[in-house]
Structures are given as C-alpha cells and as structure tokens.
Amino acid sequence: MSKELSADVVIIGAGICGGFVAKELAEAGLSVLVLEAGPRWERAQVVENWRNMPPINKSESDYATPYPASPWAVHPQLHPYNEYPQVDGPDASAYRQGVVRGVGGTTWHWAASTWRFLPHDLQLHTTYGVGRDWAVTYDELEDYYYRAEVAMGVNGPNDTTLKYVAPRKQPFPMEPMPYGPADRLFTEVVARAGYENTPVPQARNSRPYDGRPQCCGNNNCMPICPIGAMFNGILAITKAEQLGAKVITNAVVYSMETNSSNEIVAVNFYDPDKNSTRVTGKTFVLAGNGIESPKLLLLAANDQNPDGIANSSGHVGRNMMDHPGILMSFQAAEPVWTGGGSVQMSSITNFRDGDFRRDHSAIQIGMNNTSQNHKAGVKALQMGLVGKKLDAEIRRRAACGMDIYVNHDILANPDNRLRLSTTKKDGLGIPFPHITYDVGDYVRRAEPSSRKHLQQIAELFGATEIESTPYFNPNNHIMGGTIMGHDPKDSVVDGWMRTHDHRNLFIASGGAMASAGTVNSTLSMVALSLRAVDAIKKDMLHA
Ligand SMILES: Cc1cc2nc3c(=O)[nH]c(=O)nc-3n(C[C@H](O)[C@H](O)[C@H](O)COP(=O)(O)OP(=O)(O)OC[C@H]3O[C@@H](n4cnc5c(N)ncnc54)[C@H](O)[C@@H]3O)c2cc1C
Ligand code: SF4
C-alpha cells in the first residue's frame, strides 16, 4: 500500500515563490507541506563544487554544474548540453534556459536584479494596442511589490528623476551599493551619447539586513554567494521551516486527483525509486517555475480534465516568454576592470517605455559586471602563450574585456508552446518539456536598432575583437505558460493566481505573467505569489 500524507496547504516546488508562500502561510498558523523534486544543497559544498569546476565551464558561465542534477529532477545543463528542455522553432537558441531543481530553486545562482515592471507593462494592450493586459493593475500590485522588496531585502535608487523607474509609495528598504570601477566608467562613457545608465535594484545587502551580512562585492553571485549577502529562495524556505512548514525533498509530483466539483483533493509524488506517496490537502499551490508548472499540469491530465489540469482554455503551456537578448563582447581600448561589486549593478533605461511600443519591442541595454578573469585565462592559453607573455595577456584581457547586451520585450503568443516530449524522458519515465519558440516580428523589428545601440557603445570604448551573437540568446526569465486573464476561455489563472478551473489550486510562478516587460521578472513573480497568499488566507482563515 502506498503512503499517505496531509496538510492544510500543499505546495509543489521549493523555489523562491514556493518558499515565500510556505513562509507566509505557516506564519498565519496553517499546516504547510512543501514537496520538492530535487535534493537539499549545502552552501559550503556548492562553493567547493564551483572552485573545482573545469576552467572551460567557468569561462562559458556554466552556473548549473555546481548544483548536480538528479536523474529524477533533471535540470538544464549547457556544458555538455542535455536537451532539457527540448526546444525547436525559428528561435530555439533563445530558449535554452537556466534552472536548478532543489530546495531553494533557481535563485541559488541568480544575479538578484529585482526590478518592478512599469504600469504600462501591465497594460500593454490597453496602452499600445499590442500584446495582453495583466488581470491586475500596477496600483493593485504596488503593495505586494513593496512586501516582496522588504522580505527579500532590496537596495535601490530613490531618485525619482531617473528615467523610467517604476512609481513607488515607499523608499527602498536599503540604499544602493556604490558602483565598482566598470559601472562608474560605463555610466560616464555612455552618457556622451545620451544614454542614461541607472542603478539596478538588487536583492543583496548594502548594509547588514535581516540577520545577513553586507555584500562585500567579490562578484561571485552567479553561481553562488558564499556569504549569503544575496537573497535567494533557500532563505525563504529556511524561515518557512522555522515557522513549522515541512519540506520533503526528492519528491516529484506527477499527478493530481480531482473530485466531482473539480477541486483538487490530492497529489501524488514519486521518490527516486519510484515509490509513490499520496498527499491530501485543502488548498494546493503549484510553484514549480514557468516550465515545470505547465509541464506538470499537462502530465496530470485525468478523466475529468483530459487536456490537463487547469486547461479547459487550452492555454496551459502556451505564451511561453523570456527576454530575447543580443550579447556583444569586445576588448576596450583602455582598462575597464569589470568584476568590482556585484555582477549586475547598472542598466540603461531610456528605452523601457514609449509610444514606439505600438510598433516594436521595448529594450533594456546594459553591461555585465561579471569578472572577465576566467574568459581571459582560457583565451590567453588558447593563444599558446607562456610565462610573462601569458601573464601580461591575461591581465590585459581581464582589464579590458567587456560584455554588453540588449534584452527585448516579447509579446505573448499562444503558438510559443510547451508540450510533453514524445522522445525524451527522465529517470522516472516522466517526459521532458518540449518547447517551440519564435521571438516574433515585434522583436525582430527592434533588432536592427538594438544592434546599432550595441555597436555605438562599443565604438565609444574604442572596441576591438568585437563579437556579437548572430541569434537571440535566452535570459532565464521564464514567463507566460500559465497566463493570467479575466476570461477563463483564454487564460489559466485570475488576478489572484487562482486557476479558473479549480477553486483550490493556485499557481505561484512567472507562468502567470501576461507580458514580459524589459526587466528581470522574479520580483514580479514574488509579488504575484504574495497576492496568491492573501487569497488563500481569505479562503482558509476568514471563510
Ligand atoms: C543564471 C541566472 C540568473 C538569473 N538572474 C536573475 C536576476 O538577476 N533577476 C531576476 O529577476 N531573475 C533572475 N533569474 C531568474 C530567476 O532565477 C527565476 O525567475 C526564479 O528562480 C523563479 O523562481 P520560482 O520559484 O518560480 O522557480 P524555481 O526557483 O525554479 O523553483 C521551482 C522549484 O520547483 C520544483 N519543482 C518543479 N516541478 C516539481 C514537481 N513536479 N514536483 C516537485 N517539485 C517540483 C523544482 O525542482 C524547483 O526547485 C536568473 C536565472 C538564472 C538561471
Ligand atoms: S558580490 Fe559577493 S558578497 Fe555580494 S552578493 Fe555577490 S557573491 Fe555575495
């Protein structure tokens, strides 16, 4: 006989979204059980794994390798590429996502840039006649943004004259960190061509905050902050556990049971040996990120919901979005010294919004402040240099190497679709996700001017050895697969993240986001998850 477990609220996924839902609901006195497909990692061990990684993986920014993927909770690995998820379509290159699966989730190795979207991002269709509107307005989300910022510990600029900074009623919890040498120089140089380079809001401590130390600026954020100055999902989960939430690791949820009212009554998970456990609950929250959540909903199709759970609209797995990017690398004429401070400190915001959005994508332009040391070392060795010449070349490349980028605002397109793979399965026999992706003409119309911006910035730095991606690259901001809307016929969840089809099933992830904006999306995901928390509390505590 299989085992049975039960809780008031059952949460699937122990990433940042699941972590905050667990923490808030445990704090409210509800019994909370979190089912996490992957293992539990120790910070010190991951730091050690990173130190021992081959130089080539480091030079190619392979951040997943220090977090070994389990056969039962496969996550994308780029070097070597493990085809998770499978991707095809005209712009498959733009959907090679980074995700890690384990307690704490993908924010273990994120950059912690925590932007708010702009009010127009949430009302793209109403404002510019393209794309879709969210089922919640900026004004309705503002308090949740602030709650998310306080919970995570976000530092940011309170200067209201900065271009296209989202409106806010309260100041950031912390003052911004000082720029390192590269961000100072970049700001000064691009200003000559009229670009306004502004501080990025970041979930890392510019002063001791919430029992965690101040960031010491040693630039190791991706793949791990060795001292925990950067916020990540493990911190939310730890708080949830201290408040009584239970986390079961290596628990891969694969099915959902529904009753005659089409409420969820139980989910079932496999352990690594494929033993099954049934878990009953009153409310269920799917927090498996924007790829795994739609995958599970499709996988869990049952007699009552033959096209998948929460999928009467047919929109589960549709509208998959990220920020299609273009990356340019070059050697500047003079030393820039990227690598002082955190990995992303500033960004050009001039083109985040404007009437041009009727015709083509808005963009974010920036410089990666990631240290160039690994790249410089591998390149100098490949040149066959030895001794003092090798040292000098590594130093020159580490000082002068720069990576700049443009990220585009993609429109929701139902044909950008996740299905279950028919050819690839994980160690438990569960199909891989298979995604078809096309960035669309809206992005393509912006591409020529995006490339001109990058070229102009490179010229300002007297660039040589200029290389840029001829294709669109991904940015790990997974949005759209369980899209929100007011109409149950063309959306999966409402403005409270409640699925239209199942009264007691909520989705806490970027999957709900109905437009992509130009900026990193996790703060918005957390804000939406906190909205789900309020709806659940209303159901369960004030019924
Ligand atoms: C290198 C990198 C840098 C990034 N930098 C930024 C940044 O600067 N700013 C920003 O906003 N975003 C950034 N992101 C994106 C950010 O990490 C994600 O948006 C965020 O982690 C999503 O959180 P989540 O809780 O939805 O999902 P995740 O963190 O992916 O967690 C989901 C969890 O659910 C579990 N799960 C899934 N399915 C099941 C199942 N069936 N059963 C049980 N458990 C399941 C998974 O194993 C996983 O642990 C970055 C991402 C990467 C890869
Ligand atoms: S710069 Fe260093 S201390 Fe600061 S968040 Fe990144 S890894 Fe942590």
TrEMBL record:
It holds the Pfam family GMC_oxred_N. It comes from the Bacteria. Residues 8-40 form the FAD dependent oxidoreductase domain. It comes from Rouxiella sp. WC2420. InterPro entries: FAD-dep_OxRdtase (IPR006076), FAD/NAD-bd_sf (IPR036188), GMC_OxRdtase_N (IPR000172), GMC_OxRtase_C (IPR007867), P2Ox-like (IPR051473). The keyword Protein transport does not apply. This is GMC family oxidoreductase. Keywords: FAD, Flavoprotein, Oxidoreductase. Belongs to the GMC oxidoreductase family. Its cofactor is FAD. Residues 137-324 form the Glucose-methanol-choline oxidoreductase N-terminal domain. One of its GO terms (molecular function) is flavin adenine dinucleotide binding. Residues 415-528 form the Glucose-methanol-choline oxidoreductase C-terminal domain. The keyword Oxidoreductase applies.
